[in-house]
């Protein structure tokens, strides 16, 4: 009975933690660009600042995740990361120079980017330990994102976007307190070594998967970096921007629930093909519309694009990557999905947005999504009957 009580307590703490850390994600993806714009930075400068995070996360994700696997602790590393975020946020709050902010935001990203893959690793481990679905924990991140997208928008409309960093510090501090109540990872893991990583990366199917994910991620990160700027250019205030983020995050919740219950009935590749096609449609519509309110409605397609893609990709990763390298595997996925793609899309996207305008920007994003769709489709069509039927050596249960 005591063990059952401790399990429920740990799962509750993990769900609360997942809920809270997505508040910082809302700020970084949605309101940091407005903070930069408020300081007078150009679209190209904002693109450079956006690209710095993915560049740093290329090694930050691996560094912290390898340390987690090697020392068998996620909780302690999570505390270090959150403390680093608080300190860097304070320094950013008193900085106005582009060169200074470029330096400080680089360090901030070093502490920010590894939090989500490590959080997902904790959730996956806890879900398997307690016989639960990973989605029953991760869905609270979506709820948290929806909550903070709306609340932060209203808060910043009252106190001003120049106080964005103070909101960041508050949310990181709350997450740090919650971390103290989370049970540390107790699942035995193998000692990390590079030969194990190379053995994973030599898998042709995994390399193909990462290649398609990277292509899709280019379009997604372009949209992430400049959606708020697009809304601002169309006359939207912080409240409307908050509603746009709320629409996207709320829309993914029923998809997460549906796939957690019935996802195993659907093959991975058809789901990824469909999600990529919806991403392409979504970016085309954003590029064509001239209404900020229409974009709020278009954001509902987030459910059929990101919602399906995320659950399916995590399911595929757990099949392709051995359990003992799970933290590092999640870090590799994050590097492809967020880091490498964000680095290119931030610098390239900033120049395209400034020089060619919004419509051409989103048409290019649509092109990348369609390329990913073709990549997933070609792999599906060229697989043998057994693989096409979805047979695998691993198990994706409880993911």
Mind explaining what this structure looks like?
The protein is mainly alpha-helical. The chain has a single domain (7-388), classed as Growth Hormone, Chain: A (Up-down Bundle). Helices cover 81% and strands 0% of the residues. The chain contains 16 helices and no strands. It is globular. The protein starts with a helix and ends in an 11-residue tail after the last helix.
Provide a short characterization of the protein structure.
This protein has 399 residues and is an all-alpha fold. The chain has helices at 2-38, 43-71, 75-93, 98-112, 115-129, 135-159, 164-179, 194-201, 204-233, 238-262, 268-288, 292-298, 302-320, 326-356, 358-381, 385-388.
CATH topology: Growth Hormone, Chain: A
Number of strands: 0
Based on CA inertia axes, which overall geometry fits?
globular
For the sheet with most strands, the description reads:
none
Chain-averaged pLDDT: 83
Per CATH, which architecture?
Up-down Bundle
Q: In the residues, how many domains can be counted?
A: 1
- Structural class estimated from helices and strands: mainly alpha
Radius of gyration: 20 Å
Residue fraction in strands: under 5%
Protein name: MFS transporter
Domain Major facilitator superfamily (MFS) profile: 172-399
Pfam families: MFS_1_like
Transmembrane segments: 21-41, 47-67, 74-92, 98-116, 137-159, 165-182, 203-220, 240-262, 269-286, 292-311, 332-354, 360-381
Write the topology of this structure.
Blueprint (H helix, E strand, L loop, with lengths): L1 H37 L4 H29 L3 H19 L4 H15 L2 H15 L5 H25 L4 H16 L14 H8 L2 H30 L4 H25 L5 H21 L3 H7 L3 H19 L5 H31 L1 H24 L3 H4 L11
Organism: Paenibacillus aceti
Subcellular location: Cell inner membrane
Keywords: Cell inner membrane, Cell membrane, Membrane, Transmembrane, Transmembrane helix, Transport
